[in-house]
């Protein structure tokens, strides 16, 4: 195996995963070519009025991979991909992985601060953007990032806007499919880099191989009983692990089904696509659930094709889970997973009580789970503890983060998730909180340490602490407690400050509270538990 920038699985463990068939020894480029033979004329991808059969998808990917190779992109290169739910993401993703070039999955909401960090850690050689999306011009962002990070190529899905040196993605499709890569990837190569929510500073990069990521999506597809007749609606950003592989886009394509891209997360848009394309499975997050229920109660769209509604990326309240079951004539499936690997699903034949009150159980017989106390001693069944895990699709270490890996993994390779859970005798997990200093704002993970660093850079702020507080729609929202040297900046001034620093908008605190002092622990650290008790009840 080639020298890595991250720890691989132990050789004996890898051999066992191959022997039992979890890892099947094919790359995503090879898989796509196989699907094109088996399902040639079936529709694979739908984006608005544009449709690709499996054969057409494979041909387009080969044409694009040839053009990308012409730019000098080679196996092992890293490319930041920041595209919304457009077919170009799918075409580009397969073209890159076919060459062994590694896509780094940036979110549409990321701005200069995050993209520059990703480019530096990954040593990215290219950056792919839309021209505009959600009223934001990504070309201006790319122009600044390119100078900061030394990126060689900026590729635009759309109009380059006259920016010197920018390339139009449409111009990179060769007239004819090119030959196979000279130095093709191997199944155990790095296939993509996902983003961790992070607990100290900026997000970590999560390495996933062709072997483990394919198993992740394939196994989830099996448990969702996907077939050639399955139609998946991608509502949330396609670059999310959830939308990619739980079972997501990849799981549906592995089954020979159809992927439909939703241009926005609006309930009306989703319902129209469900009716038009006869969608059978869709995946949303808890903040969208009330909107879906309200749209269903006030509308008359035909949703009779929908068989499974997945809800994940944040904890779904029990009563809201019950409301989903009552409202929709389909099966609710709770999803608990992470970019780092472990995926839990409620099963389609689980009793409603488990579906309404738990976040499922691991998808693989070789997922290993421990629930431990602060001393790493396993707690009794049903008691609360931190979730530790390892398995055939859970990372053995973050990318280029040796120091962090020493803290994030046990000596025997278990990943410390930071999630506080209770495990039932059935194996189902009830997620009750987090040990990590992180806020889950509607599925968007906000690292408190990073935001506090920005707050402390604001003129007049001398101490800052970011805490979560419950929110009926988002699950959690962020509250910044500040000690100021004079008059505190206004909300508008804080928002402008974050925007000027190039920070994603969702990371700006939802509420600010000015206090005289922040309580501290015996060793001089801010005591957030005491702060929460004092001000948040």
TrEMBL record:
Residue ranges annotated for the AMP-dependent synthetase/ligase domain, each copy included: 35-399
SUPFAM superfamilies: Acetyl-CoA synthetase-like
Signal peptide: none
InterPro entries per record: AMP-bd_C (IPR025110), AMP-bd_C_sf (IPR045851), AMP-binding_CS (IPR020845), AMP-dep_synth/lig_dom (IPR000873), ATP-dep_AMP-bd_enzyme (IPR050237)
All copies of domain AMP-binding enzyme C-terminal, residue ranges: 450-525
Highest taxon of the lineage: Bacteria
Name used for this protein in its record: (2,3-dihydroxybenzoyl)adenylate synthase
């Amino acid at each position: 195996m080639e020298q890595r920038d991250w720890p691989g699985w132990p050789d004996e463990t890898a051999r066992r995963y191959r022997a039992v068939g979890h890892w099947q020894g094919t790359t995503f480029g090879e898989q796509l070519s196989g699907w094109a033979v088996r399902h040639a004329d079936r529709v694979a991808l739908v984006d608005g009025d544009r449709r690709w059969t499996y054969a057409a998808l494979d041909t387009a990917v080969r044409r694009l991979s040839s053009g990308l190779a012409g730019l000098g992109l080679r196996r092992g290169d890293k490319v930041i991909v920041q595209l919304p739910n457009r077919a170009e993401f799918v075409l580009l993703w397969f073209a890159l992985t076919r060459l062994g070039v590694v896509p780094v999955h940036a979110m549409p909401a990321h701005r200069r601060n995050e993209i520059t960090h990703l480019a530096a850690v990954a040593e990215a050689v290219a950056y792919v953007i839309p021209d505009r999306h959600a009223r934001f011009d990504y070309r201006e962002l790319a122009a600044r990032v390119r100078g900061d990070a030394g990126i060689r190529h900026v590729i635009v899905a759309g109009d380059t806007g006259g920016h010197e040196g920018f390339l139009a993605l449409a111009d990179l499709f060769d007239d004819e499919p090119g030959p196979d890569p000279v130095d093709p990837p191997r199944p155990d190569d790095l296939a993509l880099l996902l983003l961790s929510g992070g607990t100290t500073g900026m997000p970590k990069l999560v390495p996933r191989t062709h072997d483990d990521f394919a198993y992740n999506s394939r196994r989830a597809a099996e448990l969702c009983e996907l077939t050639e007749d399955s139609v998946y609606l991608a509502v949330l950003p396609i670059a999310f692990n959830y939308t990619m592989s739980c079972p997501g886009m990849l799981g549906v394509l592995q089954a020979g089904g159809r992927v439909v891209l939703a241009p926005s997360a609006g309930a009306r848009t989703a319902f129209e696509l469900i009716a038009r394309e006869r969608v059978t499975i869709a995946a949303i997050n808890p903040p969208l659930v009330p909107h879906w229920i309200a749209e269903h109660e006030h509308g008359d769209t035909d949703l009779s094709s929908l068989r499974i509604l997945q809800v994940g990326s944040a904890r779904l309240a029990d009563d809201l889970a019950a409301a989903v079951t009552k409202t929709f004539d389909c099966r609710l499936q709770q999803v608990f997973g992470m970019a780092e690997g472990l995926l839990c699903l409620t099963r389609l034949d689980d009793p409603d009580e488990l579906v309404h009150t738990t976040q499922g159980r691991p998808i693989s017989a070789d997922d290993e789970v421990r629930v431990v106390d602060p001393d790493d001693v396993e707690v009794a069944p049903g008691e609360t503890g931190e979730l530790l895990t390892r398995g055939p699709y859970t990372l053995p270490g973050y990318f280029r983060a040796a120091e962090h890996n020493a803290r994030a993994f046990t000596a025997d390779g278990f990943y410390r998730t930071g999630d506080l859970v209770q495990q039932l005798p059935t194996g189902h997990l009830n997620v009750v909180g987090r040990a990590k200093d992180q806020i889950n704002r509607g599925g968007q993970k906000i690292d408190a340490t990073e935001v506090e660093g920005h707050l402390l850079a604001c003129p007049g702020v001398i101490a800052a602490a970011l805490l979560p507080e419950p929110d009926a729609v988002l699950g959690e929202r962020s509250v910044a407690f500040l000690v100021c040297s004079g008059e505190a900046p206004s909300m508008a001034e804080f928002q402008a400050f974050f925007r000027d620093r190039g920070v994603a908008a969702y990371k700006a605190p939802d509420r600010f509270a000015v206090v005289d002092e922040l309580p501290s622990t015996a060793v001089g650290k801010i005591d957030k538990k005491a702060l929460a008790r004092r001000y948040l009840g």
